Amino acid sequence: MDYFELTVNIEPREPWSDILVAELAELGFESFVETESGIQAFAPVQIGDVSSILKETCIHNNAEIQVEWKLEEIPHQNWNATWEESFDPVLVDSRLAIIAPFHDVADFPNRDIIVIQPQMSFGTGHHQTTYLMSQFVMDLQEIPARVLDMGTGTGVLAILAEKKGVQDILAVDIESWSVENTLENAARNDCSKIRGLLGDIDSIEENQFGVILANINKNVLKRHLPDYAKLCSDNGLLYLSGFFTSDVSELEDAAKKVGFELVEVRDKETWASMKLKKVEL
Fold first, then answer.
1. Where are the beta strands (DSSP E) in 158-200?
2. What is the mean pLDDT of residues 115-121?
3. Burial 11-36 (b: 16+ CB within 10 A, else e)
4. Residue 44: which CATH number?
5. Most buried in the list 20, 29, 155, 235, measured by CB within 10 Å?
6. Rounded Cα gap, residues 36 and 260, in angstroms
7. Which residues are within 8 A (CB) of 182 and not within 5 positions of it... i.e. 6 or more apart?
8. Single pTM value for the model
């Protein structure tokens, strides 16, 4: 699949770059990279006329800012090079380093290491939400028999779950390259308990997951919540991320309607993660 790379320079950068990321995510853009002067946003070319999409955002006819933008089409085969240029290690507290094969392990002493080949899943927000979700997984007190990693991306959370001791992890994504990348990264990290599944939420024919991990975006999470309730075991845990702190109340209300209660919220640089528990309605 070919992608658009949208580069937007904004003056002043804050708070407009964060607002623009949130708006573009709602309008179909999938991944983002922060730059010194704004953002880069990525979306499948099937998204359509980007200039028309930008008219629905905060940068259109906004007298408070100066904006320059350009659009480039990137062939699928160039993704690795594109993302290697922008991928920095994700350092979670003093416990974990999520690095790429081109990083030197010796630069991250006294940390657990996960090595992944970076793909489109890493961009603005994903570092923060990966940090928060990884922190939650590392803090698990009771290790569930089975974990569902929904929207697995590069498989980081699935790999971390296995390293934590989980014996059965189902990693699901709607993109074939993501499932392939997850299984490759699992092998790269000597993980053998991870199964890949290509498809959306309706492709899952199993249930009774003790933990469900979903680091996607607000709209997808809201749509999936009733299914998460069916897939999660009684008293099981649901971890959500991929949204802003301002979205927490909306997601909490939606989750409550299908049988989840909020346990904890964590945030990092305006991004948030939620821990919820399934309860009887």
1. 169-173, 194-198
2. 70
3. eebeebbbebbbbbbeeebbbbbbbe
4. 3.30.70
5. 155
6. 40
7. 152, 153, 154, 155, 158, 171, 173, 194, 196
8. 0.78
